[in-house]
Design brief:
single chain, 7-stranded mixed sheet, globular, 3 helices, Rossmann fold, alpha/beta, 161 residues
Length: 161
Amino acid sequence: MIELVRESWSPEETHAIGAALGRLLRAGDVVLLEGDLGAGKTALTRGVAAGMGIGPGAVSSPTFVIVHEYAAGRGGVGLVHVDAYRLGVEDAATLGLDAVPGDTAMVVEWPERMPHGVVDEAAAARVRLEVTGEQSRRLRLMLPEAWRQRADWAGGLAPAP
């Protein structure tokens, strides 16, 4: 795993970090977002959508509907956005999360509330958002090693040489 730490001093910077992450995503990728309420998980997801070529204005927190699916952006890859905060074990089976289309990437907020086995956590990227101030956040990214080989690796997340 590749471990990166990024500091964000505003929602706009969190969005930009998300956009850099979104440019890296490919079909089948899963990103697990961890953090307290209000840490910026949905703001980061808006950035991910923008980086994927999906209108970030369409992205909203799926807390009450649990899953939002967004049409394909660049490269024909869509985005499935899951908020597992209100998810129960019985809900996971009925949502069809194990049958997400192969041409999508998935971002999961509150992954610790999902039953084990719904997503392959070992192959997933993980982002932990920590509140460090009123507007500031520390983002700890754990990305699969194979992502270093992707064309957009140097597009904002890679450490400076």
